[in-house]
Amino acid sequence: MLKRERHAYILHQVNLHNKVLSSSLCVDIQVSEDTIRRDLQELSDQGKVIKVHGGALSPSFNEVYYSPSQVYSRTEKKAIAQKAVSLIEDGMFILTGGGSTILELARSLPPQLKATFITGSIPAVLEYMHHPTIEVIVIGDKISKSSKITVGGEAVDKIRQIKADLCFLGVNAIDIGHGITDNDWDVVQLKKAMIESSRKVVCLTIAEKINTLQPIQVCSIGQIDTIITELPADDPALQAYREEGIEIL
Amino acid sequence: MLKRERHAYILHQVNLHNKVLSSSLCVDIQVSEDTIRRDLQELSDQGKVIKVHGGALSPSFNEVYYSPSQVYSRTEKKAIAQKAVSLIEDGMFILTGGGSTILELARSLPPQLKATFITGSIPAVLEYMHHPTIEVIVIGDKISKSSKITVGGEAVDKIRQIKADLCFLGVNAIDIGHGITDNDWDVVQLKKAMIESSRKVVCLTIAEKINTLQPIQVCSIGQIDTIITELPADDPALQAYREEGIEIL
DNA sequence: CCACTTTTTGCCGGAATTTGCGGGAATTTG
DNA sequence: CAAATTCCCGCAAATTCCGGCAAAAAGTGG
User: Fold this and answer.
1) Which residues pair with B94 in a beta bridge?
2) Does A13 have pLDDT greater than 90?
3) Cβ atoms within 10 A of the Cβ of A185, count?
């Protein structure tokens, strides 16, 4: 990996997460800690980051008041993203939707990962695009401005032509009896197609949304292979799902 | 392999992967590292790539991390966008590419305009998405990270199925003899399809790019209906194009 | 076809950059 | 305070860069 690439990657990470740890960077990028330290030093000299013991912070961190509730349940979603990343292997084809949990996943992808991500979500495409090595395939159709993803028959058709290894689904509501449910007709059509076109379906959801309902069903519990929440895998809140034979992470 | 060929190949690689290593290029093309270095130097002088120790990066690669305000020739592009907007009428279907001039156009759209914009450019989609009343249709396919547009056979096919009223084309190089030319094979395929699928083809270009050349032809002068530059319509620099029967704005 | 110029290319030697490593100082944490 | 981690400095190896030079190739004009 070229020096400039590393710098770009580090800056991207800092701007996304407001901080980076030298220790995690050097395992991500696969270079020695000294190199990372020198990189941080240079970026710090340029004023792009603020160097601190053990890593670096975003320069805007000190200026603006940092509201932790800026993004709804950001920390939980980060934890979910971390677990989700562990399912991804080099060479995989991965279908993803949109939603803030998926975005967090996109930001947490290790930099040397070589996989192909397929999505109709514009914010997700933006995140994937920043990644140095992954391939991005966009599902085209009309944009739904509210959800910022492409929706419609063309999009559904395209997804049906795909057979992906993995499908990451950000979930609005999940319930043991009604499965995954949602509130946008067009988005539901897409999610249905995504589930059918994937060998393995992984649900990402914060615990808060477990056992909640929305008007339109996306799929039944039986179609889900894995559920990822911010809770530990053996949390009692997930017992019912475990009993249905769903893998819990 | 000829010098021009090498340059085209290098540019293609850079646009594809966002970076090239001198070491890998010289085994690919079977020339000495010195030749590659000189090639990269020249391309860097022309601003086509950014030379770094060990190789080169795509110029758009760094843009992402810098402020969007320092865009090259911003004021000129705004002037062009103003003129372009005057061609748009309610209810039109409009094909557009990517590029900073098109983005400026997207930002200049009047807020009550009701039209449908079709594009494969992710930055353009983002701009259109912010608009309250226009419809956005995304052309799907694999993302070219450097140009940030979808490229490939699927995208070309989709465009062919469309018959748009207008096509706005950001232009890299235009010449009276060679028409519009560009340097990325995949992008050229898209632009060709866009031109064929539109009733009226409008070129947006800053005056600086008039009478310049790139390796690959997009279309001949005869296929262009309108040219928009920041210059007044009767500027002598555009005389030759006017004589070809092209409308100048 | 031949001399002549221009361009291109490869090679060489020295300079510069980058990277990892070791040792000791400094900082953090319990 | 003590252990662990992180930082900093200098060094060495590897790689890359750069300017100059000469041979090869391509273009030019008679």
Assistant:
1) B117, B166
2) no
3) 10
Number of H helices, E strands in chain A: 10, 15
Q: What mean pLDDT is predicted for residues A163-187?
A: 93
- Cβ within 8 Å of residue A65, ≥6 positions away: none
- Please, which pLDDT band fits residue A65 given cuts at 50, 70 and 90? very low
Long-range contacts (CB closer than 8 Å, 24 or more residues apart) made by A82-90: A82/A108, A83/A228, A83/A249, A84/A108, A84/A168, A84/A202, A84/A204, A84/A228, A84/A249, A85/A109, A85/A110, A86/A249, A87/A166, A87/A202, A87/A226, A87/A249, A88/A113, A88/A115, A88/A166, A89/A115, A90/A114, A90/A115
Residue A240 has pLDDT above 50, yes or no: yes
Predicted pLDDT of residue B215: 77
Residues of A in Cβ contact (< 8 Å) with B143? 125, 128-129, 135-138
A79: buried, middle or exposed (CB in 10 Å: 19+, 13-18, 0-12)? middle
- Among the listed residues A123, B59, A105, the one whose alpha carbon sits nearest the alpha carbon of residue A115: A105
Stretches where chain B sits below pLDDT 70 are 61-72
Assigned token pair, A115: 């996989």
Q: How many residues are given for chain A?
A: 249
Inter-helix orientation angle B3-17/B185-196, to 10°:
80
The residue whose two tokens read 């391309």 is B43
Residue type at A193? A
Instruction: Identify the pLDDT of residue B209.
Output: 87
- Residue bearing tokens 């993995």: A166
DSSP-derived 3-state class of residue B219: strand
pLDDT of residue A28: 86
Where does residue B26 rank: exposed (0-12), middle (13-18), buried (19+ CB within 10 A)?
Answer: middle
Helices (H), chain A: 3-17, 22-29, 33-45, 60-63, 74-85, 99-107, 122-130, 153-160, 185-196, 239-243
Query: Which of B145, B147, B149, B186 has the most A C-beta neighbours within 10 Å, making it the best mutation to test the interface with A?
Result: B145
Residue A168: enclosing H or E segment and its boundaries?
strand A166-170
- Give CA separation, B217 vs A238, B177, B247, in Å: 60, 11, 21
Gyration radius (Cα) of chain A, Å: 19
Question: Chain A residue with minimal CA distance to B119?
Answer: A140
Q: Protein B174 CA to nucleic acid C10 C1', in Å? A: 36
Cross-chain CB nearest to B61 (options A8, A138, A155): A8
pTM: 0.83
Measured distance CA(A2)–CA(B56) in Å, rounded: 9
Using a 7 Å CB cut-off, which residues contact strand D? A 21-23, 33-34, 37, 41, 52-55; B 21-23, 33-34, 37, 41, 51-55
**Inter-residue contact A107 to A17 (CB < 8 Å):** yes
Residue of B nearest to A126 (CA): B122
Predicted pLDDT at A67? 41
